[in-house]
Each structure stands twice: as structure tokens, then as C-alpha cells.
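Here is an idea for our session: we take a single protein and study its fold together. Once you have written the record down, we can walk along the chain together.
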Amino acid sequence: MNEDILIAGFGGQGVLSMGKILAYAGMMQGKEVCWMPSYGPEMRGGTANVTVIVGDNKINSPILQEFDTVIILNQQSLNKFEQSVKPGGKLFYDSNGLTTLPTRKDINIYHIPATKTSVELGNTKVFNIMVLGGLLKIVPIIDIQFIEKGLYKSLPERSHKLIPLNLEAFKQGEAIVEVIQEL
């Protein structure tokens, strides 16, 4: 079975990096993987999203209209992609910067307060890894050992010294994910 995931937010939030880490981790675990980034010309501060498909079956197309799982990191993405979650699917969000919250009644909804938690810990750069931790606690499609390998593969070598901090942030994300609505 494959898991179709969309991650959406502002450029600079680590949206594409999250997708890349998931994709590398999935490949290293021997899964079928697709990673398809999309971002505006503004890059940092502009909108960005990435489609990641991870699973055991061949992937027919990276172009999807509906997703099993959607991760929302800003209001514009919530407005645009809330309806892209398949009925019965999962929507994860970080409430920082949201003026409205998800309203659908036919999906599972989870809150990951990663921005708030990363600020409290004094390192906002690990925000995106916290989000991955929360996601993979609920949707365990990839083992944590492969997340570590994905970090080594996707981060530049000069940043490898930060991998233990990222793994700690991943565990923090697992601990802070909150169920808002489960079907």
C-alpha cells in the first residue's frame, strides 16, 4: 500500500527538506518513492509544497488531486489544500500563523505545535523535523533508523553535526502531536 502525502507551507519552513528526508528514508528502507517539489519564484517566503509518495507498490503518477495525508504549515496552504485530503484521510497542521482551523468532519485531524515547541527549546531550525516526528508517530510508514539515514543523505556534510539535535527534535515531535479529531 502507498501513502500519498502533500506537505505545504512557506518557502524557508523546510517543506521541501521534509519531503526529501522522507523520500531518502523511504528509498533506504527499500520502498517505492516519489518526490515532487513545487514552489513559486519567490522561494523564501513564497508558497512551497511537495508531494511525497512512499509505499510498497509501484507509483503510477506523481500528479495527484487527493492525498491520504496533508501537512499544513500556513493559512494559505490550509485554504488551498484542506479539500485535497481524501475522505477518511489525515490532515496535520501547525497552528502558528493560522487564523482559521481545519473544519472538515470527514477526515482525521492532528495538531503538531512544532513552532511553539521549537521556540521554547531555543532552536526554530528543527521545527520541520518535529513535524516529521508527529507525522510518523501517527502514520508509521518509515522506521526512525531510516530517518537518520535520510538526514545524512539530504543534509550537507557541514550540517551532519546537527543530526543528533534533529533526532531529538524528531522524538519531541512524536511527543507533542495532538489528536483533534479521529473518525
Observations:
- The chain has one domain: 2-93+100-109+135-163.
- The longest strand covers residues 2-10.
